[in-house]
Predict the 3D structure of the following.
Amino acid sequence: MLNHFQTLLLFAFIASLAFAFLSKRKLGERLKYTIWAFLAFVLVAIAIGWLLYPFTR
Amino acid sequence: MSEENKHEVTMADTGRGVVAAAAGWIVPGLGHAILKRWGSAAVYFISVSVLAILGMAMRGNVFPSSSSDPFDRLGFFADLGTGMFYFLTKTFEAAGPDVSRSAGVYGTMMIATAGVLNMLFILEAFDIGRKTKS
């Protein structure tokens, strides 16, 4: 089974791809949107993880 | 609506939209396949099925229709959006949900996300069928 980070990566990729297909029509635009949304998902998740870290103990 | 997108919607267009939306609900992506949007159909089917099956494999909670809690009822509507995967829960999640572990909680969110994403795909299939979206 996937660990938490792998699950996050898979979730981010699938959601990014789905949003790219919903909002863009051309292949190049979809590819660009997928990459940007994927990076945004992962970076924001890591940032929120660090922000919440002091409250975990 | 902009000038270029102006289109007289006929009953046949609406009927095609409803059929595409219904098909897309039962089998994610099927609505787009009916409308010959093969690429979108494949991506949407894979997206919803991977999220739903992975969520169930992680023993996420699939909310029943009998939930009395309002949030659980919202969860039920989100889960129902996965179409056939909702009705195949017992097949994919024979051991039942386990939200005492974090994997189960993530799984619950994945199943709900799959359902909500499929609702967006259904709306798009309806619009394409009605020719109000290219």
Chain A touches chain B through 13 residues (CB under 8 Å).
